[in-house]
Amino acid sequence: MAAISAFVDTSGLFALLAKRDPAHSLAEKWLREARATRRQAVTTDYVLDETATLLKARGRSDLLPGFFGFVSSSEALQIEWMSPARFDETREFFLQHHDHRYSFTDCASFVTMLQLGLSEALTTDRHFRQAGFVPLLPIGQGIPL
pTM for the full model? Predict the structure, then answer.
């Protein structure tokens, strides 16, 4: 199995799927480079839930079959599932950082990244930078969540 190189957030998945997203070309470039170097990425079931909901809410249900097809067939995208222990750790992180505007899904992503030793995320979400991670897409360049 290839080494995991980055976390893929909702805004990163949206940028990959939605051709009119301002970060689309950069996200596609990242994906091509990851494929060429056989790097893997990771996301969580919470991010998949959030992405599917976002696509539907933004009137892009047409992208759902491709999204679920990509997720289920990709050998380069590993899905980390919420376990009771990870949920407890996420809850603690969420409560400790109540002064930030992090969503619970953001906190689950941060905890997962910390557990896996990841520093980079395919995201446009400024919260990743605030939490000490390196966004691979321009902050605020994607469709706001």
Answer: 0.91
